[in-house]
Amino acid sequence: MADPTESTPDNSNTVRKLSKNQILTLISTASLNFSSMICYSILGPFFPQEAVKKGLSNTVIGLIFGCFAVFNFLSSLIFGRYLVQIGAKFMFVSGLFTSGVATVLFGLLDKIPDGTIFAVMCFLVRAVDAVGFGASITASCSILAKAFPNTIATAMGFLEIFTGLGLVLGPPIGGFLYQTFGYEVPFIALGCIVFSMVPLNMYILPKYVADSLPSEHSFWALVKLPKVMVICFTIFSLSSCLGFLDPTLSLFVIETFHLKVGYVGLVFLGLALSYSFSSPLLGMISDRLPVSISYTDNFAIH
After folding, report:
1. Model pLDDT, residue 147
2. Where would one find the signal peptide in this protein (predicted)?
């Protein structure tokens, strides 16, 4: 028989007193948000320069950054459809492991011959990283919805602190490691950190039991809602604005201000810090506004 604390958390005291499973869930998802974002943002300060040395144009560099979002989007759709069959915890941990492998492999790409072969391998490894992250983030969203059915916005807002920390620390750490040790060390070091998160989450992440199988047409019914379409467009627009900076900002700063790569990462701090500070506040405000749907009626995980 399933533990009642796993399938039906105490919603009345979610904000004031968290259950053990809720605390462990927050730790697990925080480790995912932090490790995935620090690995994602590490490329910004120095990869464009390395790619230029390998004979790639700015357009191709931008496509390498952009392919992450494309494969993350496509894989999330597939993983969301088969989440119940695969199991949320297994998907969470296996996605984290895949992302760690891809991060280490990306650090070895400087050994690849210049030109087309280098570009193809960058696309391939970046796509694998996106698929791994897509699996983990899809599972984590469902787990959070189950663990915090009435305060999901507050929980996600709190966890976005760690997303912001990953975005904050990734560029300066990556820049200084690259400046000190070269291209390989930043990726290998952070890849090992991601690997360390795998056994941690295997041990502490609670296994929530599904209440029922999801509706076969639930996804398309959700996408067709006008409010959801507006939200998707808003996220697309904001993400596009952020995505423009990754492949271009470091090249512009180095060419214009002649900064060392280690200091280029500090330029990315402003955006990430404001994101970290505002997310938990906005999450708490959102939970205090009137809601029109029940999270427990729309998510089922195994």
Report:
1. 85
2. none
CA angle 179, 182, 188 (to 5 degrees): 115
Residues 56 and 118: beta-carbon distance below 8 Å: yes
Instruction: Tell me which residue of 219, 232, 234, 226 sits closest to 78, measured CA to CA.
Output: 219
End-to-end CA distance of the chain: 14
Cα(214)–Cα(222) distance, rounded to whole angstroms?
Answer: 12
Q: What is the CATH number of the domain that holds 111?
A: 1.20.1250.20
Work out the average pLDDT over 255-284: 63
Contact 186, 177 (CB under 8 A): yes
List b or e across 72-90, with b for residues whose CB sees 16 or more CB atoms inside 10 angstroms: beebbeebbeebbebbbbe
The CB-side HSE value for 106 (13 A sphere, CA atoms) comes to 31
In the chain, the number of structural domains is 1
CA 40 – CA 259 distance, rounded (Å): 22
More confident residue, 244 or 288: 288
What is the residue range of 52's domain? 19-287
223-231 contacts at long range (C-beta below 8 A, 24 or more positions apart): none
Q: Is the pLDDT of residue 243 over 70?
A: no
Helices assigned H by DSSP within 1-82:
4-7, 20-41, 47-53, 58-81
DSSP state of 260: -
Rounded CA separation 255/249 (Å) = 10
